[in-house]
């Protein structure tokens, strides 16, 4: 912030205007958009169903981005470099994790090689195994744990081989090395799994939440909701008859629940344990932390383990929700993860989560005004660039790790 | 002769000598690569056309990679600007050229109309558009920390790529003129710069003496059995190499000028440079804009000569290629960048494919198995060939893996690259001691590298611009 006006008391409106005018302009634009949004809902130009779906999808992708962003944020603040291989570690972890799930489910019934490679070059399809949360709950839970563990292990291995010898090298050169790591991971996935998109999960169980004749109901699908065949009927009736509804799937709910549980766990881990305190100390000043007897290398290992497993689980859940994955999905998410981390403030875990949700909502809600979906991601990147230009410390002032 | 005259003479001799050694290094490397490829070509049984074609391809790719590498060297090697949005600036250049030269009323209904400008104007517009994109980024973003600049430029290149692939920009109308990027299916490049060369051979631009000349060239090549299309490609490559020479001299002279020395000072220590009265923001912006314009030029000569360009071309991979070129060569060294381009193209890019062709021609490689498990499974039966066939089938992916390994190894083992951080005098005139007294056996004062040791001299120099 420019120092002019800093002699004014901080609460003074003049001080706020002088030092935060760009933020104020930003807020103003945001308010205008919100008013326009509410107005178009009121006039019916934007159906409520559409808005609800946008918000729901935005929260889902946002939570996944936030969970994946935790690892990026931690390594950025503790090791001091932007890890470009983060997205591809997510891809590699997800492929390995899904291979292990396939092996667990199909071992004995299908050819080993087919299961290991998710059906590359054969006739094994997702429908043969029928993996979804309700049909194979244990396989899905195993997949979450296995992908987390595999990605954490992969991150540790990469750190040992590539990043550990580069601890004293400038952060930009480590960034370039991480590009090398990204290439190796991404194209090893192509080498083993081929570049075609792989389908891994079957269509999840659905439910439609909405109003039928003013009564809030939950039905098995949109069609049944419209027809009035509800699973669950709430006793109170509100408002007029409407066709508004929100369709949710079991995998979306699983993603939201898992992410929130993990984030609460992370919060406790970082606030209540010595490890969390050590991480904060290291992010502030590594030399000093070492001088105070903090085993820095062990803390770095834990950083990779925590960050890697969160990233892996986020990747697994995103793939489960979409049902398919390709070798590029992690890379395509990476810039959005960066956007989330930067928006929240590098080093802040809560920032990563809030940033993730804001970016997620941006990519979906911007479709209200955008002519086509291709432009949604550019909008998120524009916001990332604007945040870097206007407020590089992010929303949470880059308070390191919690 | 006066004493000053002596000094000037000796300096001139030394400069000439260093230029000579740098030039001979580049020429020597290229000759070695040519010999290698000729030998490979003979073993593959290429005819004259095949041989010339292979060498032309290597030379052309080396030239365009070197040109883009020189632009990045201006950004990163001289000024320390971490530009990871190279693909985006290249896309802006090529698309602007394509949109400017596309005919106003295309013959087919699927083609996107454009402004219908002549090719040279289109090329100029492309270069200016890339420079303008650089300016738009430079104005706000150069204040940022280096790693934030990296993220901003990376984000920008994705914004450019995704926007160009959208239907909204695919075809739009401004002030009654319809044009567009063609969306996902890309744009036909009517302004293909190699067309000028083709026209020279096909029509001689309708000028009598020129068509006589082109006919004579074609005839003399035909007498040794080289087809017209090969001659056209070869001539275009010669033109591109000529432009590379121009760009090389431009960047080299920029680097040795007071402007260039200020840039190097910024790379070493921006705050000190600022405190010496330099407007570092302006200097950085100038460097960034010039580099982006050169990136546009390289992209137009390269991707622009393919006749069609699609948004998928401008992924992060393209950016990393250019970075590998500069990192192999050594940031800050123009000669190194050209060498890096030659090595990158001949060994990392084209090399593996040539190797595969040799093996394919020598051994009887079976059809590639459908999966790696099948390929590994046949090792158990004592047959290595299926695995080899699988590896060859997925060679493109393995080349990227190799690229990643090379990148990491260079940063670990030799972060200065082949020729980075060579000693160089801060001043164009060596005022410290006469050349004859240099007994340390150090190589001549090659230009165009930055060196922390020489930093003080550079900064002193930078002040008296």
Describe the structure in your own words.
The complex is a heterodimer of chains A (402) and B (465). In chain A, strands 4-3-2-5 form a four-stranded antiparallel β-sheet. Chain A is globular, with a radius of gyration of 23 Å. In chain A, α3 runs parallel beside α10 (250-272), α3 runs antiparallel to α15 and α10 (250-272) packs across α11 (274-284). With 402 residues, chain A is an alpha+beta fold. Mean pLDDT of chain A is 84; it is low at 1-6 and 235-241. Chain A folds into two domains: 47-197 and 249-390, ABC transporter involved in vitamin B12 uptake, BtuC; 206-248, no CATH class. In chain A, β2 and β3 form a beta hairpin. Helix content of chain A is 65%, strand content 6%. Chain A contains 16 helices and six strands. With 465 residues, chain B is mainly alpha-helical. Chain B has one domain (3-349, 421-463). Helix content of chain B is 68%, strand content 2%. Chain B has 19 helices and four strands. Chain B has helices at 3-44, 48-79, 86-101, 119-141, 146-164, 167-170, 194-202, 208-223, 228-256, 258-268, 270-275, 280-302, 316-329, 334-349, 351-362, 372-377, 385-393, 395-413, 455-463, and strands at 172-174, 177-179, 187-188, 308-309. Chain B has a two-stranded antiparallel sheet. A two-stranded antiparallel sheet of chain B has the order 3-4. Chain B is globular, with a radius of gyration of 24 Å. The two termini of chain B are 30 Å apart. The chains are: A alpha+beta (402), B mainly alpha (465). At the A-B interface, α5, α8, α14 and α16 of A face α5, α13, α16 and α18 of B.
């Amino acid at each position: 912030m420019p120092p002019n006006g800093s002699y004014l008391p901080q609460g003074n409106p003049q001080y706020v205007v002088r030092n935060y005018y760009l933020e104020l302009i930003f807020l103003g634009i945001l308010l205008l958009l919100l008013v326009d949004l509410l107005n178009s809902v009121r006039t019916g130009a934007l159906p409520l169903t559409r808005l609800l779906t946008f918000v729901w999808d935005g929260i889902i992708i946002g939570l996944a981005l936030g969970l994946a962003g935790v690892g990026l944020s931690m390594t950025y603040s503790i090791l001091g470099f932007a890890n470009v291989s983060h997205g591809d570690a997510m891809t590699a972890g997800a492929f390995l994790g899904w291979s292990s799930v396939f092996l667990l489910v199909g071992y004995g019934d299908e050819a080993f090689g087919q299961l290991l490679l998710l059906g590359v070059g054969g006739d094994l399809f997702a429908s043969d195994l029928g993996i979804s949360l309700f049909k194979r709950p244990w396989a899905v839970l195993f997949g979450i744990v296995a992908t987390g563990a595999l990605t954490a292990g992969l991150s540790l291995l990469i750190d040992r081989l590539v990043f550990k010898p580069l601890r004293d090298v400038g952060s930009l050169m480590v960034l370039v090395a991480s590009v090398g790591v990204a290439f190796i991971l991404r194209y090893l996935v192509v080498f083993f799994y081929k570049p075609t998109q792989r389908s891994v999960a079957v269509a999840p169980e659905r439910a439609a939440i909405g109003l039928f004749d003013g009564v809030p109901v939950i039905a098995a699908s949109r069609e049944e909701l419209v027809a009035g065949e509800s699973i669950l009927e709430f006793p109170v009736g509100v408002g007029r008859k409407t066709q508004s509804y929100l369709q949710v799937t079991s995998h979306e709910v699983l993603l939201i629940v898992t992410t929130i549980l993990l984030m609460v766990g992370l919060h406790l881990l970082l606030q209540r344990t010595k490890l969390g305190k050590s991480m904060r100390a290291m992010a502030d000043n590594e030399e000093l932390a070492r001088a105070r007897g903090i085993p820095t290398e062990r803390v770095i290992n834990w950083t990779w383990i925590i960050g890697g497993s969160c990233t892996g689980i986020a990747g697994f859940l995103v793939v489960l929700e979409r049902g398919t994955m390709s070798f590029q999905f992690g890379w395509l998410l990476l810039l959005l993860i960066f956007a989330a981390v930067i928006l929240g403030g590098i080093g802040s875990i809560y920032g990563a989560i809030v940033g993730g949700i804001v970016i997620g909502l941006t990519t979906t809600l911007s479709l209200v005004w955008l002519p086509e979906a291709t432009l949604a991601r550019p909008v998120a990147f524009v916001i990332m660039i604007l945040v870097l230009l206007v407020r590089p410390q992010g929303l949470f002032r880059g308070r390191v790790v919690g | 002769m006066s004493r000053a005259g002596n000094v000037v003479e000796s300096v001139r001799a030394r400069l000439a000598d260093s230029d000579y050694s740098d030039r001979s290094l580049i020429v020597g490397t290229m000759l070695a690569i040519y010999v290698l490829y000729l030998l490979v070509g003979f073993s593959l049984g290429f005819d004259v056309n095949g041989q010339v074609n292979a060498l032309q391809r290597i030379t052309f790719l080396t030239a365009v990679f070197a040109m883009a590498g020189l632009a990045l060297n201006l950004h990163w090697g001289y000024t320390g600007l971490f530009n990871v949005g190279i693909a985006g600036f290249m896309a802006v250049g090529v698309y602007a050229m394509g949109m400017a030269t596309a005919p106003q009323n295309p013959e087919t209904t699927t083609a996107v109309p454009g402004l219908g400008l002549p090719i040279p104007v289109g090329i100029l517009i492309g270069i200016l558009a890339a420079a303008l994109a650089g300016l738009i980024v430079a104005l706000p973003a150069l204040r940022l920390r280096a790693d934030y600049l990296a993220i901003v430029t990376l984000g920008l290149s994705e914004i450019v790529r995704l926007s160009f692939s959208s239907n909204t920009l695919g075809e739009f109308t401004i002030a009654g003129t319809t044009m567009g990027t063609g969306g996902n299916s890309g744009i036909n490049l009517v302004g293909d710069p190699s067309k000028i060369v083709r026209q020279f051979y096909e029509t001689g631009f309708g000028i009598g003496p020129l068509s006589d000349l082109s006919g004579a060239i074609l005839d003399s090549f035909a007498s040794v059995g080289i087809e017209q299309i090969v001659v056209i490609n070869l001539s275009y490559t010669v033109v591109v190499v000529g432009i590379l020479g121009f760009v090389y001299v431009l960047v080299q002279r920029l680097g040795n000028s007071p402007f260039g020395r200020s840039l190097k000072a910024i790379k070493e220590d921006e705050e000190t440079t600022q405190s010496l009265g330099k407007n570092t923001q302006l200097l950085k912006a100038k460097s960034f804009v010039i580099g982006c314009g050169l990136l546009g030029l390289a992209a137009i000569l390269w991707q622009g000569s393919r006749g069609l360009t699609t948004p998928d071309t401008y992924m992060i991979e393209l950016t990393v290629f250019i970075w590998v070129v500069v990192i192999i060569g050594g940031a800050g060294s123009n000669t190194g960048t050209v060498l890096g381009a030659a090595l990158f193209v001949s060994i990392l890019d084209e090399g593996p494919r040539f190797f595969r062709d040799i093996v394919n021609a020598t051994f009887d490689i079976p059809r590639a198995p459908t999966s790696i498990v099948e390929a590994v499974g046949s090792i158990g039966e004592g047959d290595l060939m299926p695995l080899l066939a699988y590896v060859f089938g997925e060679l493109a992916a393995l080349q990227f893996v190799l690229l990643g390994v090379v990148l990491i190894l260079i940063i670990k083992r030799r972060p200065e690259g082949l020729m980075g951080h060579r000693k160089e005098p801060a001043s164009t005139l060596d005022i410290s001691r006469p050349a004859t007294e240099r007994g340390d056996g150090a190589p001549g004062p090659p230009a165009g590298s930055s060196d922390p040791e020489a930093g003080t001299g550079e900064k002193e120099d930078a002040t008296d611009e």
